[in-house]
Amino acid sequence: MNPIRIRSTQPDDLPALIALQERVYPDIPPWDLHKLQAQLAVFPQGQIVAEDDNGLLGCASSLIVLWDDWSEDHNWSEITGDGSFNNHNPAGRTLYGAEVFVDPTRHGAGIGHLLYQGRRTLCRAMNLKRIIACGRLPGYHRHAEQMSPELYVQNVVWGDLSDPVLSFQLKEGFSYCRIMDGYIPEDIESRGNAALIVWLNPEYDPEQPTIIPEEVSP
Predict the structure, then answer these.
(1) Using DSSP, how many helices (H) and how many strands (E) does the chain show?
(2) C-alpha dist (Å) from residue 20 to 59, 74, 97, 122
């Protein structure tokens, strides 16, 4: 038995994460080392990895935002500061999921669930109101000639179609909000589209401040 562990991302993990991201997204440029270092510098609590005894299996990266500043329209590059997370704002109440990726040879092992669970633990520990993310729609390219992205997502939400990302996110308790056009323009499979999703923290207390712990145990 080789158990999977979730822990905080460390500086020594970054080269391996870049290599893994290149395998997961061969058609999308990976983050560079400087941006990953910047993410750790501005919000170390929001960066987590999955590993077993053989090495890293995936990661989840997030930042805190004032959602009112971004709710109308944004793309991935704008809200994440092009991956630098320089828009991170501890005064916000929204944990924004910037990225999740898992070793493609280990799909089905529950790694994604553990990473999402780690994010929910962080959201609760910090007394944040919600997690918001914009998920890719990698199955959309197979239906793009027959239907709009809105109709595609509607079919996924209703269970008539399955999408590798959105179907998983719905099972993780997220609710679909709307399509974000041009979210990652170079994402060919999604045709640049993403699904705006939200998870509401049932333990959120509006009377209490946001808590920024030195460390959170996922």
Answers:
(1) 6, 7
(2) 9, 27, 18, 24
Q: Torsion-angle region of residue 114: left (phi > 0), alpha (psi -120 to 50) or beta? A: alpha
What is the secondary structure of 166-216 as a DSSP string?
A: HHHHHHTT-EEEEEETTSSTT-TTTTT-EEEEEEE-TT--TTS-----S--
- Of the options 3.40.630.30, 2.60.20.10, 3.40.190.10, 1.10.10.10, the CATH number for the domain spanning 5-200: 3.40.630.30
pLDDT digits (tens, 9 = 90+) for 185-196: 989 999 999 999
Number of residues assigned to the chain:
218
pTM of the prediction? 0.93
Look at the alpha carbons of 109, 21, 7, 163 in this order and tell me if their dihedral is positive or negative: negative
CA dihedral 202, 59, 73, 78 (to 10 degrees): 140
